[in-house]
Amino acid sequence: MHRVAVLVLEGAKPLDVGIPAQVFTTRASMPYEVRVCGAAPGLVTGGDGLSWHVAHGLEALEWAEIVFIPGYRHPDREDPPAVVVEALRAAHTRGARLAAISTGAFALAATGLLDGRRATTHWHYTRALAARYPAIEVDENVLFVDEGRVLTSAGAASGLDLCLHVLRGDLGVAASNHAARRLVAAPYRSGGQAQYVPRSVPEPLGERFAATREWALRHLGEPLGLTELARHAAVSPRTFSRRFADDTGYTPMQWVLRARIDVARELLERSSLGVEQIAADVGLGTGANLRMHFQRILGTTPSEYRRTFSQGE
User: Fold this and answer.
1) pTM score, two decimals?
2) Topology given in CATH for the domain delimited by 2-183
3) Which residues contact 26 (CB under 8 A, 6 or more apart)?
């Protein structure tokens, strides 16, 4: 039997707790034993109005071969209790794998075990994680990261991808596919696949050039270079570039490209237009150009994206 501990912290998110507990449930096809634990046995107040009465305390981390750390509310406000951090470090020293789901990455980061490594978390918190733990290489454009004995995933659905990835490594592809069918889940999504954030164009940090951004979004199918954008904003290209980057965190042309990719994503989801037509409509010219940018930014192809997100499926 493989031994799995699910560590429930204050404010834990229900799906994040439930996913590893259900994926690794004990049954004939799944030789796992799961123990749900907390900093101490008893009641743990979770997020979204739910709480857990856990039977085990941190001794479960001494027993486990892999420890899942579900996400929890307000991870950027304070570290988990020192006793939890030390127990996670000790489990890792003994050889256990530590796997964080969503904002559980903050608890794992507090141990120092992610320093110098790649990691991810829910897209809403990637910048906060990078700011709080600058020694971590935070990758905001992946579903999960496997660094050997420390693993991290994006939001709750990506936690399922991570669990199936772990299962695939433990028991092979057949067992992983069987579990995916039981859970009515996609049998495999690459960890390198991008987090599908509803809109990748970031919210403005200020009001400068807001009118130009709105104008650009209405004219994505037309040529939009730095000259055209600066002319609309009535400033020099140099001034526009500097202030635009201050507002958005992107250069003007990076922002335009991501805006075009976002519109292409929406057309793939909501229309039956071909890739060539979509590329022309959003200002990317050719289908080959659209495919190249899709692969580079999202880590997938337009056709795979449409199969995953088309409203007709």
Assistant:
1) 0.68
2) Rossmann fold (3.40.50)
3) 1, 32, 33, 34
